[in-house]
Amino acid sequence: MSSKEAPPSAAAKLRQMLKKKDMIVAPGVYDGFSARIALEVGFDCLYMTGAGTVASKLGQPDLGLATLNDMREHAEMLANLDPSVPLIADADTGYGGPNMVARTVAQYHRSGVAALHIEDQIQTKRCGHLGGKAVVDVDTFAQRIGAAYQTRRRLGSDIVIIARTDALQTHGFDEAMRRLQAAVQAGADVAFLEGVTTADEAREACRLLAPVPVLLNMVEHGATPSWTPAEAKALGFKMIIFPFASIGPAYKAIKDGFVKLKEEGRTGVGGDFTPKKLFTVVGLEQAIKVDAEAGGSLYDKV
Predict the structure, then answer these.
(1) Annotated catalytic, 164?
(2) Which class for 214: exposed (0-12), middle (13-18), buried (19 or more C-beta within 10 A)?
C-alpha cells in the first residue's frame, strides 16, 4: 500500500519562504470574506489584523479588549480556509505571564497558524499607532518570547515567533533595538519594530538586527511613512503586512452603500454580484466537489 507524504505545515512553508523569498507580502484580513478575496487574488501569505479582528468580531476599538479565545477562534477559521497559505496572526501580549504565553502559542499552533507576534506592551494594550502606550520592562518581554520559544520546541512546532516592540515611541530607538536583540536571544525568529517613522531609522534597524528578518507594519496614515513592498525591501525588510488593506476599503464601500440605501432606497450593488458570485468566492465549487466525490447530487443544479 502506497501512502502520500503529508504536505508541509503552513508554518514550515513560511519558514521556507523566509529563506527563499526576497519579500513576503501579507494583506490584512479581518474576517472570512476578506480572507477569501485575498486568496482569490492570489496572495501567498495572509495577516490576521488584531485591530480588524476586534473591530469586526467585537465591534470595539483595539484597546486590549479581545481575549485569547476571541483571537484564537478567529485565527483558526482564517488559517483553515486554505491551509496551504500561511497565516501570520496578532497575539497581542500573549495574554499574561509565561504560562499564558505558552498556552497562546500552543493554541495558535494547534489552530494551524503559521506565525504569531507577541509585543512588549502592558496587558491593557492599545493599537501601536495610538498615543499613550506603555511597555513592560525588557526582562518581562524577554520572558514572554522565551516562553513562546520553549513551547514551540516542546511541541515540535515550526510556528514562527515574531517579537514586536512598541518601545520606539516610549523609550527611543536605542532601547527598542536593545529589546529586539534581547528577544532574538530569547528565541524570536523575526523582529518587528512598531511605529517606524523615517527611512534612516528603518534602514539602521534592519542593519543592526541582521541577519534576523525584520517585519514592517505598513499602517496607512499611521506613524510610518507609506512604503511599497519594493521600497521596504530596499530598506532591508523581509516581511511587510498591510493591516488596513481590506477593512479600510470595506468601510468606505459599506458606508456608501448604506447611505445610498437610506437616501434612495437602493443599495447600488453591481449586477455582477449575484448570490452565486458571493457563494463562489467563499468556496461553493469546493463544496460541490466534496458532495460529488461522496456520491451525492445535492448541488447538481446550483
Answers:
(1) yes
(2) buried
Domains of the chain and any CATH numbers: 10-251 (3.20.20.60), 270-302 (no CATH)
CA distance 142 to 69: 24
Q: What is the mean pLDDT of each run of 10 residues along the chain (302 residues)?
A: 76 97 97 98 97 95 92 98 98 96 98 98 75 90 98 98 96 97 98 96 98 96 92 98 96 95 93 91 91 86 78
Contacts with 95 (C-beta within 8 Å, 6 or more apart), sequence order: 67, 68, 101, 103, 104, 123
Which residue of the set 129, 144, 164, 179 is catalytic?
A: 164
Would you call 90 a catalytic residue per the annotation? yes
In the set 30, 36, 45, 92, the catalytic residue is: 92
Choose the catalytic residue: 31, 45, 109, 119: 119
